[in-house]
Specification:
156 residues, 34% strand
Length: 156
């Protein structure tokens, strides 16, 4: 099995107003771990800490710096858009996971908001940003809300 690098953030994201839940699961016999984070009561101030932690982890995994900046900007905009436009109180559940394997960077963002596909909103600058940043972006409904999967392929 190919080495799999997974990143999501650091423990320093947690604050009293935003509990951070971390989940680790074994991905292979070699002991590689998958790390995913969720913020139960995410707010705009918590988003920047999550994005900063993600940036540090991507750097540690040798993702090119120019890709990291563009990806982190897109992630931040997705989170802020969900919080501002999908939750009436501008705070709610957000989950994030990111994995890198065989030159494919996969990012998943989930929420518990009402059904909404930000990828297909007419005239959306966010949809344009996502199309220009990622090689593939999809939306699906889950039993609890929305899931966005975004992929970037890099030369290995």
């Amino acid at each position: 099995m190919a080495d799999k690098k997974v990143y999501g953030g650091d423990d320093d994201i947690e604050s009293k107003s935003q509990p951070l839940r971390e989940r680790k699961t074994n991905m292979s016999e070699e002991g590689n771990s998958c790390i995913a984070f969720s913020l139960k009561f995410a707010t705009a101030t918590g988003v920047s800490a999550l994005v900063d932690a993600t940036k540090r982890q991507m750097t540690a995994c040798s993702i090119p710096e120019e890709k990291i900046d563009a990806i982190c900007l897109a992630i931040e905009e997705v989170f802020l858009d969900i919080l501002e436009n999908s939750y009436p109180t501008h705070r709610g559940y957000l989950a994030f996971s990111c994995s890198y394997e065989d030159g494919e960077l996969l990012i998943r963002v989930s929420d518990h908001a009402p059904s909404r596909n930000i990828l297909q909103e007419e005239g959306s600058s966010l949809a344009s940003l996502l199309q220009s940043t990622f090689d593939e972006a999809t939306h699906s409904l889950t039993g609890e809300g929305n899931r966005y999967e975004m992929k970037v392929w890099m030369e290995t």
